[in-house]
Every structure is written in structure tokens, then in C-alpha cells.
Design brief:
Strand order of the largest sheet: 2-3-6-4-5
CATH architecture of the largest domain: 2-Layer Sandwich
Number of strands: 11
Order of helices and strands: EEEHEEHEHEEHEEHE
Strand content: 35-45%
CATH topology of the largest domain: Ribosomal Protein S5, domain 2
């Protein structure tokens, strides 16, 4: 990735279809942020398509892009998962999974035919969903007295932080994503406000 302060992902779920000699390939592309997210999606698709012959997939996650997995799900080795991942990588996408459901049409496509089909349908899916740029964030948790609420929220808003979770009572807890490129500035500003405990979530 050229700019380490940002990454590219897709905005919403999309499905594309490709047919070859009677076989039907359905590619579902999803934004995902964890392997748990992915497992839920895979389970949903297996329930939606119980009669499909294969549920092949690839995903790449984590802002460093180091978390990835491919599965041929019974297809010849390297004929499904790798071509799908190749399409995700060619668009330099992160936090994306593409799951391809295949209904066998009775005619064997051969390895080159399979590679082409999985590659094509994954590409079609990723072409039809908007690609968005997201900032790389560091996760922090904060605890503070509710009287500090306005000041805290103002800093988070001004510095483009994401509020992931909030528990607002007499004593407030907030889980936030701070843009990597503004981390020093945010920590510095919070240091100026006393009575705020802020720590990095590992």
C-alpha cells in the first residue's frame, strides 16, 4: 500500500453471477473486520445454498494486510481460492472477503476453466461495489467523569476519531479508533485534560 495512513475496502455487500458450460458461480463480496465476521457470513451462505457443490473463498484482513486465507473447498488445488485472492489484491483491498458458491452443471471445466471462472466472478463482484478509502486507526479506551464529556467528544470529532463503543453514565467509558496520522496530536490534547485515563487496546 502506498499510503500507510489509509487503506481501501468495499462499502457494502454485493453479489455477482457468472455461468460457464452449465456451472453457475455466485460471488458474494463483503466488507469484514474480523475472522469471526467472516465465519458468520460463510455459515449464512452455506445455509442459503445448501445444495451448492462448493463454497470457495478468500479474504485479506488487518491494516497491514497480513491476515489472509484461501480455500478451494474441494476444487482442484489452486483453482479457486488463489484466483479469488488475486482479484482482491489486484484492487489492493483490505478487510474484504469474497465467497464464491458453485453449482456444478455436469461438465468438467478443467483447472484453466475453473481458474478463469473464479477469477472472473470475483472480479465482477468487486467491480460493482463502491471502493472506499478508510483511515488506519489505533484502538484506545478512555475513562472519565461525565463532566468532561463535551471536551472529550469535541476532540474526538475534530480529530476524526471513530467512537466504537460508549457507556455514558456518571463515569464514562469510550472505546475509540484514533487515526494513525493524528495519534500524537490526540494523545497530547487529552494529556492536557486532567482526570482522563486513556490506554491503548492491544
Amino acid at each position: 500500500m502506498a499510503d500507510q495512513d489509509f487503506y481501501f475496502t468495499i462499502e457494502k455487500e454485493v453479489v455477482a453471477e457468472y455461468k460457464d458450460r452449465g456451472s453457475k458461480f455466485l460471488a458474494y463480496a463483503f466488507p469484514v473486520s474480523s475472522t469471526d465476521d467472516f465465519k458468520i457470513k460463510l455459515k449464512e451462505l452455506k445455509e442459503l445454498h445448501p445444495k451448492a457443490n462448493h463454497h470457495c473463498f478468500a479474504y485479506r484482513m488487518g491494516v497491514d494486510g497480513n491476515t489472509f486465507r484461501v480455500s478451494d473447498d474441494g476444487e482442484p488445488s489452486g483453482s479457486a481460492g488463489r484466483p479469488i485472492l488475486g482479484q482482491i489484491d489486484s484492487k489492493q483491498l483490505i478487510n474484504v472477503t469474497v465467497i464464491v458458491v458453485r453449482y456444478f452443471g455436469g461438465t468438467l471445466l478443467g483447472v484453466p476453466g475453473l481458474i478463469n471462472a473464479y477469477k472472473t466472478v470475483a472480479s465482477l463482484a468487486l467491480q460493482t461495489t463502491p471502493i472506499i478509502q478508510k483511515q488506519i486507526e489505533e484502538s484506545y479506551s478512555m475513562e472519565f467523569d461525565y463532566t468532561r464529556m463535551n471536551e472529550v467528544m469535541m476532540i474526538l470529532k475534530q480529530c476524526n476519531c471513530t467512537v466504537v463503543e460508549q457507556e455514558l453514565q456518571l463515569f464514562c467509558r469510550i472505546k475509540t479508533g484514533i487515526p494513525k496520522n493524528r495519534l500524537q496530536e490526540v494523545l497530547y490534547r487529552f494529556k492536557d485534560l486532567h482526570d482522563i485515563q486513556i490506554k491503548k487496546i492491544i
